[in-house]
Batch of 3 targets.
Target 1
Amino acid sequence: MTFPPSAAPLTDVQRVLCVLAHPDDVDFGSAGTVATWVDAGLEVAYLLVTKGDAGGFDDTPREQMPILREAEQRAAAAAVGVKQVEFLEGYRDGILEPTIGLRRDITAAIRRFRPDRVLTSSPLRRWDRIAGPSHPDHLAAGEATTCAVYPDARNPFTFTDIGLDPWTVREIWYSGGPNPDHFVDVTDVFPRKLAALRAHVSQTSHLDGFDEFLRERHLLLARAGGLPDGHLAEAFSIFQTA
């Protein structure tokens, strides 16, 4: 299964909410694009479903990992100009499910922030890359966010106990899904993406040749998107929700 062709991005977007499962998810897939949005004057906020308590690659005490990763994500957000970073409570890294409770919490965030655009992980598995994009938590966050965008957040008769007015998100961007076909040139902001990812010390400091690996991946995406040689890109699938 794959997505149909992307819609053209809306041109009047003012606010964007990025909803991802773990600290660092937004930075691996989308930090360059986020930087271009911030530079264009859009208001961007992050909502992280978990605090990444199952992450890390050393002997850091488990009880310290959520504290460490929350601080890393805030530093990474600052590197691309994002000032608002929120974390949900009560959801564990590695065992995330698209529950009604999670849909409710994401709906509440949408109704508070009132974004024109939501960016999230693809709810579709990529069979060519089981590791990374197809992490079950990513799929669960993408599914729950999609349900929160439609129908939950816009339906005045859903989650009435939240006490917030309904809100219609007009556009959704998926990261990490199969066959993305909308490419964003991130060449000029790539150093800020690298800075954001380096802020996730617990996740990236052990990787040899990380900068070169990341640059090569983005060169390949740019080539797939028909950008000039030497350019770097991130890729998405885009849909309007009406």
Note: The two ends are 22 Å apart (CA to CA).
Target 2
Amino acid sequence: MWTDTRPAAEMPRLFERGGDLISFAGGLPDLDVLPLEAISGQLSRLVRLGGKLAFQYTTPHVAKALVPAIKDLMAREGAHAEAANLVPTSGSQMGLMAVALGLGAPGETVLVQTPAYPGATAAFRTAGLDLHSVADDRDGMDPAELRRTVLRLRADGRTARLLYCNPTNQNPTGRTLSVERRKELLAVCRELDLLLIEDNPYGLLSFDGGTTTAFQALDPDRVVYLGTFSKIFAPGLRSGWIAAPDHVLPALSRTAEVIALSPSALAQAALAAFHTRAGWTDLIDGYRASYRERCGLMADALEQELGTSGPWTWERPNGGFYIWLRHRDGVDTARYAAAAAEHGVSFVPGGHFSVDGEHADGLRLCFSHVPRKKIAEGVARLAAALAGPAPEGGDR
């Protein structure tokens, strides 16, 4: 059910380009890694031999040829789903919308790991759900705080059944929940009958090649898993999937079909053909190497330009696309956006990752797509914009 009675769902401006702008805003993958010549040949063959099917409507299921490609990806983090439990999506953003509309009801509360991906909070709000953040401790989302929060909400008469989590190489912090912490959170979910929504675009993009056991692998009946090809292949195909437990599968399947009618047969066939011929390992390794290098360049530049004892703090992530900065004095970083634009650089203010303004003192920098030679220059421009006192006002 769509509703406009909740706070406005706002998405940051991620993909603006032009002029001399160096953008640290949008989480674009480095498509230089893609073997475009090989993909071109595969697409040409696909269209030549099966174009009438590839360009047609199809059934609202994951294509049989694509199932092994999805199973391969999920197995790398210990997860598994049968073909019958896979729901096709046009990327994980559609999956989030399907979850919000199919599993929630307007006025219910969804618990959210914060700082949170803005696309998730926008989807939940668009569906009329209320958001409530769960506090962290040094190891990430705090299981004891999750229990206290849910019990308090229910005592106040509010319905809280869903928990949203982006657990591996998280957007925007780059942090990963340990397996032990995942087990503790799942124990609370079982105790309080919560369904965990595992949003996992970056799980295979740890710089050292390691992986962390997925929530879905630990308790497949308690977890709705959102997967996407956008970060390990390319976002332009707009293809992803939901791995759903039996008890919520009908609702998610119906909702996804209403949203999209059918998945792209061409996109699914192209992905299946690539996996059949090349597998995922070389491509994922190429992406990991690219992001490891770019992250190092950005972190080194931040240390040189901002130092380590000034008002800005950050951690070097071990994977993903982003570095998350915080202002020690709690200044709203939206105030710096205009100054950054004047210096020819962009970022995403931390307020976009908040449920109730609790992360407005942060800012997200994306390194994944910036030309290597431009990273240090972009950080120097950013440092110049951040050097002065925080301007008054600002636009979130």
Note: The chain has a mean pLDDT of 94.
Target 3
Amino acid sequence: MYLPPEIIPCQHAGHEALQLATRHGTAIIALHGAHLLSWVPAGQRDVFWLSPDSPPEPAAIRGGVPVCWPWFAKQGMPESALRHGPARLVAWQVSAVHASSRDEVSLSMAPCNDARLDGLAPDLQVSLHLTLGRTLSQSLHTRNLGTQTFHLTQALHSYFAVSHAAQVGIEGLAGLPYQDKLRGMAADIQQTPFALDQACDRIYGAAPGGGSAFTGRYTLADAGWQRRIVIETRGSRSVVVWNPGSEGACRMADVPDDGWQDYFCIEAANAGPNVIALAPGAEHWMGQTLSIK
């Protein structure tokens, strides 16, 4: 496929990738897993953290924005299922591009024709869309081509680079109920401003009395770097907030022991009790738009 000058094939952190460039900055997306590796707004540092210990392909890449699809963790799946689904482990290819000017460029990607997504969801079709301009937007489009309803869980598992994970705040969570994986999925409500205590692994959902409404706007406030990352989600009924903490990082082969300090995950998601029942013939969009304030 023809690529405009704003989209350039490149190598990044050992991965075959595509670099998108506008006057507002650059973004790099790997062909392996359609994995967003980098976004550098003009004149600023990278928004994402990428592990220096990430294993080579075909293993999953640690950092950036992994595509967790069509299930999150192993929710609703047998124990033999691939953690976070197969999409992040297969080769993707460009299916469409658009460059309107030096201000904005976008592309669409889909798994390669020979990519084996998984026998557990053979009738689902997925594509990813990425737009780089003043902001960066990603969206996942899922279609059910089968005859049975599929219970879809998913996430854009964003690893945001921070000055120190224990010293950042997350705005937009106050009043939201959550399930705490570190406490056996115990239910609670965020009553106080969010701050990291040792480690965190939570699935937040809509506020009580809000019905199905879910604002989907969060801000990662990083005073150390004088940066505020605004995350606006759509088609996302939940948000996952995760950091493994010191002890958790020491148990992870693809994260340096002190690497937990360098990132915080805030993930547009449909997970926990917030599952998408995708009927035959139905489709669903989930995405996020990121901006720097």
Note: The longest helix spans residues 245-250.
